[in-house]
From TrEMBL:
Domain Helicase ATP-binding: 267-497
Biological process annotations from GO: DNA restriction-modification system
GO molecular function annotations of the record: ATP binding; DNA binding; type I site-specific deoxyribonuclease activity
Domain of life: Bacteria
Matches recorded under InterPro entries: Helicase_ATP-bd (IPR014001), HsdR_RecA-like_helicase_dom_2 (IPR055180), P-loop_NTPase (IPR027417), Restrct_endonuc_type1_HsdR_N (IPR007409), SWI2_SNF2 (IPR040980)
Lineage: Bacteria, Bacillati, Bacillota, Bacilli, Lactobacillales
Protein name: Type I restriction-modification system, restriction protein
Pfam families recorded: HSDR_N (PF04313), SWI2_SNF2 (PF18766), T1R_D3-like (PF22679)
Gene3D superfamilies, A to Z: 3.90.1570.50, P-loop containing nucleotide triphosphate hydrolases (3.40.50.300)
Length: 992
């Protein structure tokens, strides 16, 4: 075989050095100039100090020798840490010496620019750091060893794995590698891949991939793209190791993460390639476009999203364009969790400790505190979406002159809370306008047309607000709002770190790799002589719920779960720390499961397995009232901590902990709930966290879903998600024309309704007039038969949904269309097409004669998931809707036995005061108010929303609701009957 004539040291190494010198301005130094006792090039350090801080150096040299100054600098580095010394300098004789100069945010200060340019980057090859120990390359900044690089040359038969092995053999106690005092990172590099670590610990050293990702867009996986003009890893020295990049890494990226349980345990965090790429790309784009655009970052679980958000926030507050104008005044980090995640709080605070830079809206802070922070000079604010909703309701006037400020909003996990009313709250808070004397511009007369234009401006894209949404699983609506428009008109994320790449790089597990499915078979029979006619769909739902809650069903599944749990020795996984989650379809099912497990453990004398339950509110069962805290015997806020102990192995959940719950000890999941699309991915992904030090395996046993359905749900998120179709004005206008064809709207009535709507205050008579205007439209709807009413409701809902996203994602404005939007929002609530046949009970009419759960398949992810990147927005069909057919109960039972439709739905068919109570419980504004306010403060929001509930439900009981609207005293007396019930229910409900 012909010899390539290429050698690692004399070719690959020299290519890198030449590029560093010729393209990045590096100085090449010799090993003889390296001091292995101090891990520095003393001559370069001295030159830097004398050139940049001559006055201070002259003062020190009058008292100390050169050797003493160098020794004292090293002592300061050893004492306080290398990173701290680089960022803050060192103090000698009470004089500060800067070891580097940051890049100034603007070019106004010429001296600061000159100091930055004076930083010296250098490289030494074949560095002998101790007797018998040599490293291929060391990168220095101002003579201080910064990065170590071990090279391997693939054509010579070695790879990056050999470099990793060699670095693991280095002496971690040598001053060059000593943690916190030596180099900030060590890189293992070959011609195809790069890995890095921030702490050498012998064979326990953990290396992270530092690769770009192989392929583009939908084909992105692990590794690096092929470079036709050189080696695939040249981005390290041509991009990452440039002066600007290195100084940015030191100033804005690299930081110590402090263990929450042990303050002495510190981890040096260095950004992975995709984290640095995403932040850098966003900064470059916003430097040019300011706050003109919104952005979507699709980063998989395991991507380090929390740190990426924190890095971006800190970088944005100092970002300026080429004309030295700042891009944003304030960065808001908004999460859809109930409280700001502790990990996010810590990351944001630990990157920069300067007072006043960061304000976290924790449990004790109110929406008023958030308003004050926004109006003030705080640079970074971390909060929940719920506090924004509260500002919009009651405290928005205190926000002040926000329209003159520029904001970047970083959304942590952009899902349901970023669609519709919540994001409207954020936009509204940040776009209120002030007059010159500082008062809110409300005292001037505003026409309805002006008010509508202002509302469109509030809920649409604002010039002073740029929203950057982070999520692993973008829905079609998320892409529509935040995606970047592609040349073909589709919407795509601005930056992608795919699930495929995360799995291949070993940051998360493929949860589809060990998947078992079951199917339930059962036979139902009547226990009544009569054969009543019932509505098909409703009867099926009631039967499905009856079967779901039957003791036989729950007990058999508990047997199957425990057989799997014990036979697969789940507890023995991860060195005896393995845990499981049971996902149920509802609160009552979860309660019955918990009771069934307790009975099973008692009957089988099992004491080594502990279960916990997670659900919201209270459940009445067997004459008893059950709550999460009562069944677990501790408060909800302690659940995560308790479940992490050895006392508990199984967590039973009902619509809780299916998203955002990070517990790497979870190895098994039992699914007794129908999962679709994003919900399927988010729920099953609770298992995908790796557990350091163990070869973790995952198990899923599914009673409700097929393996093909689950694979289909994962397909759009495996790589890059693309929105194939976007909402255009023509889509909305098409639905608007369809509504016109029904002839249910009168333009004069719509305009009059909006006149009342935009009045600051409305009398009871005016509210009744609004109801009367809605009734006129509703009367026209009632002229149609039930089948047509279903069609009308479907078209109106489609119009409302699509119009909402149109005005949020575009600058589209149409006053007439917006007036119709306002009117239809109220009208659609009055259209009740579920007429007749609703008030019945199924439990006394049927029994379960036979039930069996049969395994239908066991699956392994033996081949790559078929990628289906495109999502489409849900658009309502304009075809007719088939109405429910009345069928005999016996026929319905036959269909159920064949189709086994077990979808669960909640029936709402109440009247009078009970109807008002339920309407109030569903009110999103009240939900947010109850979460953050005391009972006394909640009264104000409650009283404001009573009229809206009466208007919404007016058609159900016109006489009663009309009287309440006209009599404040009577209205308050009725409302007080269920005030406590509403408050307690909303206070205890799960997060939205």
């Amino acid at each position: 075989m012909a010899n390539l004539g290429l050698k690692e040291r004399y070719d690959f190494q020299q290519w890198i050095i030449k590029d560093l010198k010729d393209k990045n301005g590096y100085i090449q130094r010799d090993n003889a100039q390296y001091n292995p006792r101090l891990a520095m090039d003393e001559e370069l350090l001295w030159d830097f100090l004398m050139d940049t801080q001559e006055e201070t150096m002259d003062y020190l040299l009058k008292k100390l020798s050169k050797e003493t100054i160098i020794t004292l600098i090293n002592k300061e580095i050893v004492k306080g840490g290398f990173l701290f010394a680089l960022k803050e300098g060192v103090f000698i004789e009470n004089k500060q010496l800067r070891l580097l100069y940051r890049k100034p945010a603007t070019s106004f200060n010429e001296k600061a620019v000159q100091q930055y340019q004076a930083n010296r980057l250098s490289v030494i090859e074949e560095v002998v750091y101790e007797e018998g120990g040599r490293i291929d390359l060391v990168i220095f900044i101002n003579g201080l060893a910064l990065f170590a690089i071990e090279l391997k040359f693939n054509p010579s038969g070695q790879s990056v794995q050999d470099a990793i092995k060699q670095l693991k053999g280095r002496n971690p106690n040598n001053c060059l590698f000593r943690f916190e005092q030596g180099v900030l990172a060590s890189f293992a590099v070959d011609t195809m891949e790069i890995y890095m670590t921030t702490q050498l610990k012998g064979q326990e050293t953990y290396f992270l991939p530092f690769n770009m990702g192989k392929g583009e867009g939908i084909d992105m996986g692990s590794g690096n793209p092929h470079n036709p003009n050189g080696v695939d890893t040249e981005y390290l020295w041509l991009d990452v190791l440039t002066k600007d990049s290195i100084l940015q890494l030191i100033e804005s990226f690299i930081f110590f993460e402090i263990d929450k349980n042990d303050a002495k345990k510190r981890t040096l965090i260095f950004p992975r390639y995709h984290q640095r790429r995403a932040v850098s790309r966003l900064l470059e784009d916003m430097k040019v476009n300011h706050t003109d655009s919104n952005y979507l970052i699709q980063h998989s679980a395991g991507s380090g999203k929390t740190n990426t958000i924190a890095w971006l926030a800190h970088s944005l507050v100092s970002l300026h364009d080429d004309q030295n104008r700042n891009i944003v005044d304030t960065v808001l980090i908004v999460t859809d969790r109930i409280v700001v995640d502790r990990q996010l709080q810590d990351a944001v605070r630990q990157i920069d400790h300067k007072n006043g830079v960061v304000k976290v809206m924790g449990d004790r802070e109110t929406s008023s505190d958030l308003a004050d922070a926004i109006a003030g000079n705080t640079k970074i604010i971390a909060t929940t979406i719920h506090k924004f909703a509260q500002i919009n309701q009651s405290n928005w006037m205190s926000v002040g002159n926000t329209a003159k400020k520029k904001f970047a909003i970083l959304i942590d996990e952009a899902h349901s809370s970023t669609t519709g009313s919540y994001m409207s709250s954020v936009s509204q808070v940040l776009t209120e306008t002030d007059t010159e004397d500082g008062t809110i511009d409300e005292i001037q007369e505003v026409t309805v047309a002006d008010a509508i234009e202002q509302e469109i401006a509030r809920t649409g894209k604002q010039d002073n607000v740029s929203i950057i949404a982070f999520t692993a699983t973008p829905k079609a609506t998320t892409l529509q709002l935040f995606g970047t428009t592609q040349p073909d008109g589709s919407k795509a994320p601005f930056d992608v770190y795919s699930m495929k790449q995360a799995i291949e790089e070993g940051f998360i597990l493929d949860v589809l790799d060990n998947y078992t499915t079951y199917k339930t078979y059962y036979q139902l029979n009547k226990v009544v002589e009569e054969d009543p006619e019932l509505k098909t769909t409703l009867a099926k739902r009631k039967i499905a719920k009856f079967v779901e809650l039957s003791d036989e069903n729950i007990n058999q599944k508990v047997e199957i779960i425990m057989d799997h749990f014990i036979s697969h020795d789940i507890m023995a996984e991860l060195g005896g720390q393995g845990k499981a989650m049971l996902v149920t379809s509802g609160r009552e099912v979860a309660v019955k499961y918990q009771l069934a497990f307790e009975k099973y453990f008692k009957d089988h004398s099992i004491t080594s397995i502990g279960t916990l339950i997670a659900f919201s509110g209270k459940v009445d069962y067997l004459g008893r009232e059950f709550s999460e805290s009562q069944m677990n015997q501790f408060k909800e806020e302690h659940l995560k901590e308790r479940f992490d102990t050895d006392a508990y192995q199984v967590l039973i959940v009902a619509n809780k902990y299916q998203t955002g719950f990070d517990q790497p000890k979870l190895v098994a999941m039992y699914v007794d709930k129908k999962l679709r699309s994003v919900a399927a991915v988010q729920t099953l992904s609770r298992l995908n966290r790796i557990f350091r030090g163990y070869n973790k395996k995952t198990f899923i046993l599914d009673f409700k879903n097929t393996y093909d359905d689950i694979r289909s749900a994962f397909a759009p998120y495996y790589r890059e998600t693309i929105l194939a179709d976007t909402i255009a004005p023509s889509d909305v206008l098409k639905l608007d024309r369809k509504i016109d064809e029904y002839g249910i709207l009168d333009s004069e009535e719509v305009q009059e309704f909006n006149q009342f709507l935009y009045q600051e205050k409305r009398s009871s008579r005016e509210k009744q007039k609004m109801v009367a205007l809605l009734n006129k439209g509703y009367d026209r709807v009632k002229r149609f038969d039930e089948k047509e009413q279903l069609s009308i409701r479907k078209v109106i809902r489609g119009f409302l949904r699509m119009y909402t996203f149109l005005i949020q994602a575009t600058a589209y404005q149409n006053e007439v269309l917006h007036e119709r939007y306002n009117y239809l929002q109220s009208l659609v609530k009055m259209i009740d097409v579920r007429l007749g046949g609703n008030d019945f009970t199924i439990a006394d009419k049927i029994v379960v004669d036979y039930m069996k759960h049969k395994q239908t398949g066991s699956f392994r992810a033996v081949s790559e998931l078929e990628y289906q990147p495109e999502l489409t927005l849900p658009k309502p069909s304009l075809s007719d809707v088939t109405g429910d057919q009345e069928k005999h109960l016996s026929e319905i039972l036959d269909e159920m036995n064949e189709q086994l439709n077990l979808n669960i739905d909640q029936q709402v068919g109440l009247s009078g005061a009970v109807s008002i109570r339920e309407l109030m419980k569903k009110n999103p504004r009240l939900k947010q108010s109850a979460r953050v306010n005391s009972r006394e403060d909640f009264v104000f929001a409650f009283e404001e929303e009573i009229d809206n509930a009466l208007i919404e439900g007016y058609s159900q009981s016109q006489d009663l609701y009309g009287a309440l609207l006209n009599n404040d005293s009577f209205k308050k007396r009725v409302a007080n009957i269920f005030f406590d019930d509403v408050y307690k229910s909303l206070k205890g409900s799960e997060e939205l």
